[in-house]
Amino acid sequence: EVQLVESGGGLVQPGGSLRLSCTASGFIFSSNAMNWVRQAPGKELEWISNISSDGYWKNYADSVKGRFTISRDNARNTLYLQLNSLKTEDTAMYYCQKASVRGQGTQVTVSS
Questions:
Q1: By the 8 A CB rule, do 6 and 103 touch?
Q2: What is the Cα gyration radius of the chain?
Q3: How many other β-carbons are positioned within 10 Å of the β-carbon of residue 51?
Q4: pLDDT (tens digit, 0 to 9) for every residue of the chain, 112 residues total?
Q5: Alpha-carbon distances of 68 from 16, 26, 31, rounded to whole Å
């Protein structure tokens, strides 16, 4: 069974940083591309980044490009998302995703 467990969210002031983690199990993590998506209250799910299985290829939504960085550690079965220069509009539940499977999410709240 595929399991994805996100962590690292929290309350941060505008301009601050957070590092999200996603620990994966139940599948061969190193053979799979992975995604980060987010959902703000009252809004649709938004794709924000993905990374190839070997970590070489990375893509970002325009809304986060230059501020967020995706990475992975295949030895630890862990996906990361570094969030810098956070804005109030980044407030959302953040999920890691493999195909159609998501974890329970971690809440990021950006507020002064």
A1: yes
A2: 13
A3: 22
A4: 999 999 999 999 999 999 999 999 999 999 999 999 999 999 999 999 999 999 999 999 999 999 999 999 999 999 999 999 999 999 999 999 998 899 999 999 999 9
A5: 12, 27, 23
